[in-house]
């Protein structure tokens, strides 16, 4: 779908590489610009597969080309400017101002390539008093209130199992990039997209924040969808496993009350005094017995699955969501098959020569000279 799109990926770790992986899955040519000699730090995260590739890195970098470019070399920034002049999208994940100090600013790139869509993906955004602070996903979850909201009342927040700030910012970056590309089709001009983890996390909490500001006090376990309602929360079962219970609508609650033989609970689905009764009910049977009784009965009950169960779940299998080599992208199109496994992530700089030949039209002698002087590496 994006087969004519050339993307420069100057990101590392999780959020930027996920965004560019989705672009690659949609057909874009993605060139991962890495610092030699070690490249993206996630290359070195265990576990590694039989081919020596980190499973974490594989999930985020399949089918991308690798160009090893030393931006600290005097000629490095100029070479990046040359590449940006040929690209459709540049996505970077440096702290604000880093590339500008090297002379590679959005303005400089768009002066040579007005149609370039430049996307900066950062923790706190490109402006504001916190813009230069270091952080990771847990930092932005803490600042946004998400870590506090997901805590158990009276206890410290648990470490987040899912890096929601990273992943939401990835999707925000994708939204901005694709919107800018749509606009470019009619104007011929690109945009500068400013995506951040803090912005993304605050944005998706809009219903909670505005309810809070309207007087409905928010807090761990207080929100309607955060554990306050007996009809919308996880419950522990007899075998130590759990179910997620969610019959918010009266028709689902009525079906549930009928199945478990508790007509006296009708009309009490929002009554917090029912918490204890439901805890006792679900604790009376193992999880999978509750699945047999309620999962297909239109009461909005689901088992809380671990990863071993997720990858064998019939719906996950039917949708082709997970294989040992590939996790499916978050969107699909009718009549278009999901992308299969792509080539394993290349070694650092494996495509350096190919990119400089193909994208910039440099001859072998010019590439050899850059390799010899250490502007770039790999691709020999």
What report would you give on this structure?
With 380 residues, the chain is α/β, with parallel strands linked by helices. It folds into two domains: 6-204 and 324-377, Crotonobetainyl-coa:carnitine coa-transferase, domain 1 (Rossmann fold), CATH 3.40.50; 224-315, formyl-coa transferase, domain 3. It has 18 helices and ten strands. The chain has helices at residues 15-25, 55-61, 76-84, 98-101, 106-112, 137-144, 146-149, 164-187, 197-204, 206-213, 224-228, 250-259, 275-282, 287-295, 307-310, 314-318, 352-358, 364-373; strands at residues 6-10, 29-34, 65-69, 89-92, 117-122, 192-196, 233-236, 242-245, 301-303, 376-377. The strands form two sheets. The chain has a seven-stranded mixed sheet, sandwiched between helices. It has a three-stranded antiparallel sheet with strand order 7-8-9. Helix 2 (55-61) links the parallel strand 2 (29-34) and strand 3. Helix 6 packs across helix 9 (197-204) and helix 8 (164-187) packs across helix 9 (197-204). The longest helix is centred in the middle third of the chain and has 24 residues, at 164-187. It starts with 5 loop residues before the first strand and ends with a strand. The model has no long low-confidence stretch (mean pLDDT 95).
